[in-house]
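Lab notebook: predicted structure, single chain.

Context: the supervisor wants predicted structures on file for every construct in the current expression panel, including those that have not yet been purified. This is the next one on the list. No modifications to the sequence; it matches the entry in the shared construct table.
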Amino acid sequence: MASGLPLAGSVKQEEKPADPVAIGLELDPLNPHQSNWKTLVVWANTVYGGPAQFLRAAAGDLVAFVAFVDAELPRLQGTEYVDPLQPAPAWPILPVTCSLKDFGFDVDASSKPPPFKDTTMRLAAEIDAHGYVTDTEPLVSYIRGDVQPPFQFGHVKGMARHSTVLAGVLWAYLRRASVAEFFPELTLTGRAIHVRFESHCSKLSVALRNAALSHRGSIRKAHCAVTWVGKLFLLRSAGHTDGAQIIKTYNDTAPSTAQIKGGKRVSIMALLNCSQEALETLLDCVSTLTSDGAPWSDDTWSNKRVMPGSQPRCGGPEWSRRMAVDDASFVMMLKWQVNTQKMRLPMLRRKLDKTSMENVASLCSLVRSLCLQLMAERPISEETVQIRVVLPFIEARDEHLLLALQEIIHMRPEVIALESLPIFCDIIQEHTNVSDRSLVGTNRSEIINADLEAAEFSLYEKKLKADVDTIALHRRKIRTVQKRSAD
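Prediction complete. Output recorded below exactly as produced.
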């Protein structure tokens, strides 16, 4: 059996800060005007992506961390705790009591992607108000047969709650602080964790059970299409590659209101073929804005015209190639839409309709084709194009540029001069100057200035020669007059 200490490679021992102060978060002890939980979660979301990622990156020496947990949150006297090494069939079906250190936080401990940021913020408010409540809402866990204590149990339901709580304890451990001083509610609710164990033969079984329980949740909402795609990607890494069969298995046991069908099912199957970068962009958006605040509905991705591989017929083969959607333009589209949505006030955020999606897809396909044209015409790297062209296009929201791109799409010219677009003009000019310098030791602007100076000098030289000639002629005339007067 494997030990729970290495955490399946998800905790990087070398990433533990040499000095606990280096984690850079200050909390106030017992400050009634500040929620330490909210402050902690906002910081973890910003720096690491979430409490679970903070745990995986910064836990470091787990033996020392476990000793700290035992010292700060010891077991309650008179309470019977589960023996992690006891055979599972001996455990009752009703909830039993475990310690905080018994539940894993590594990647394999859950069947879902890391908890979304919006979820962790709501959980922080709940924990701040009521503590780590598991007596009325126990965790749902299962035994991972290949992992030994500590952190040995996997999560069917409750990973988000548990990782948020454990992140607070880890902060105290890294800062050599007292849990009771900064998170006093854990001294009452964090010493006895109530859990109900289920038997699962595979990670697929865990994933389907988690989806069924999520459909009933309040804070942990039912899975949207993007969440399902993240779950199926994780299952794919565990050997369950048939997404259609997994969805069918889930639908066979789910109530009709929770079944995956129609446009949502088509969207999930389409997104399973997208790139890793696209998936990360989708998950990060839903994590930050929630599925309700994200710009896409569950059936958005059932529209093939906005998906990678689409090549519309428009204006001949050249323009069909320009308007084709590939992985790069698809990711560009997602990031453009996410940035646009974040710039709106929450009350003004809306789902994109089919026409809006197709218009943005066309804009991004055009920009991508122009980037490829630039790299084909000039030796400019992909990285430079991403920094100088793609990123400003996504973030700047230049209305003049958008109008120029829309006009190009409408007119569909046979030849597009990149110099006519400001976003390309600057980089082309800089590249031209650099190229000139590499060829003749100076750039074009300096060559032009030097030519102007030479021409100006030549003009002054000719004027000066004319003046000398005029003076010489005048002197000859004077001498002639003087000679005639003498005669």
